[in-house]
Amino acid sequence: MSIDIGIDDGARKQIGDGLARLLADTYTLYLKTHNFHWNVKGPMFNTLHLMFEQQYNELALAVDLVAERIRALDFPAPGSYAAFARLTSLKEEEGVPSAEDMIRILVKDQEAVVRTARSIFPVVDEAHDEPTADLLTQRMQVHEKTAWMLRSLLG
């Protein structure tokens, strides 16, 4: 059955592709944050262990919201490591960084997710896709606040 939600097929495709990149960034950040939660050590262990847990739990819910919006636009949501690796703008971490380096890495990655979300806005605005605009606004707000909170730990 064809979709007719008032957004032309070309714009829907561009939005779906942008959301696929956002999904890949979000899932990659989820994995990295969960990894850091498991492996953090040092004097800030308890603070960071708990903070990272809150962050990866929020990201786990976010991937579902982004994937469901992709589906509502009638496109398949990417769902494999290979697809996420191809689509993400984030760099995978090798080894276990220091606690302070974990914070710095996550700040950069949170900001990268904001940039990915922001990059989708022109086509979303032009298509009058308010549901996607609302989702992007909420995601940017969360990631900007999380980046600020992480940055604050560095003094």
Automatic annotation (TrEMBL):
PROSITE patterns: DPS_1, DPS_2. Pfam families: Ferritin. This is DNA starvation/stationary phase protection protein. InterPro entries: DPS_DNA-bd, DPS_DNA-bd_CS, Ferritin-like, Ferritin-like_SF, Ferritin_DPS_dom. One of its GO terms (molecular function) is ferric iron binding. Belongs to the Dps family. It comes from Magnetospirillum aberrantis SpK. Residues 18-154 form the Ferritin/DPS domain.
